[in-house]
Amino acid sequence: EVVPILCQAPLAQIYPVKVLPADGGGVPLSVIFDGLDHVLSLKMSGALDIDVVNMSLGAVSLYDGRDTWADFVTALTDAGILVVSAAANSGPTPNTIASPGTADDGITAGGLDYALSSRITYEFIGLVEMGVPVPGQGLVMRPTTETRVVNFSSRGPLSDGREGPDLSALAIWNFLVGPYNGIGWGAGTSFAAPT
Fold first, then answer.
1. How many Å apart are CA 51 and CA 94, to the nearest integer?
2. Model pTM greater than 0.85?
3. How confident is the model at residue 90 (pLDDT cuts 50, 70, 90)?
4. Which residues contact 43 (CB under 8 A, 6 or more apart)?
5. Rounded distance, CA 108 to CA 165, Å?
6. Shortest CA distance to 113 belongs to which of 181, 183, 191, 60?
7. Are 32 and 99 in contact (CB under 8 A)?
8. Could you count the other beta carbons within 10 Å of the beta carbon of residue 14?
9. Taking a C-beta distance cutoff of 8 angstroms, is the pair 187, 91 a contact?
10. CB of 73 within 8 A of CB of 83?
């Protein structure tokens, strides 16, 4: 039986610009900048009306708001494109937001832990992965209902004194369908940014 799953933005049209390899490895920043230049060229020429760019990636910057990432974010913003960047996963230490999340323009997304998502995951683990079904693990593992900043979410302030991140969304126990492992859960501010 097929179970329909309604996602975050079911009517969104997605134009993917792949800059990272499928194996999760890195690439030179120039490859990512070429991808951003491609999006900017499409928007400026009128070939494709792109409204939002999500960047669930980043790198350490010694020049918060004054590096090449920031220049691209400003150019995209000036062209009418909203840029949303993942804060990074280097928390809870302060001043750990990665670029492009350190740009003056755009939105930087940090990560939250919602009680409902945690309870569903713990319940699943208790029923399926412990060998003998153990119902009720959701409430045992997450007895309170408060929303928490997930411990790995990068935090501000930035080196130049600005606060950050701009907003936060679910970043742990995100239900997903992977290309190799089927269904499962993922974690990281890379999930918070597109949300």
1. 31
2. yes
3. very high
4. 49, 50, 76, 79, 80, 81
5. 5
6. 191
7. no
8. 8
9. no
10. yes
Q: pLDDT digits over 116-171, tens only? A: 999 988 888 887 766 777 788 889 999 999 999 999 999 999 999 999 999 999 99
Q: How far apart are CA 88 and CA 100, in angstroms?
A: 10
| φ, ψ dihedrals at 49, nearest 5° | -90, 85
Helix segments in 55-194, DSSP class H: 68-78, 115-124, 137-141, 189-192
Torsion 44-50-51-57 (CA) sign: negative
Q: Where are the alpha helices (DSSP H) in the chain?
A: 29-45, 68-78, 115-124, 137-141, 189-192
- Specify the DSSP element, H or E, that contains 176: strand 174-178
Is the sign of the CA dihedral 67, 69, 74, 75 positive or negative? Answer: positive
For residues 90-96, average pLDDT = 95
Q: Which residues contact 181 (CB under 8 A, 6 or more apart)?
A: none
What backbone phi and psi angles, to 5 degrees, belong to 36? -65, -40
Give the position of tokens 């492992």.
Answer: 181
Tell me which amino acid residue 121 is: T
Residue with the two structure tokens 């939250």: 112
Instruction: State the pairing for strand pair 107-113/148-149.
Output: antiparallel
Alpha carbon dihedral 88, 89, 90, 92, in 10-degree steps, equals 110
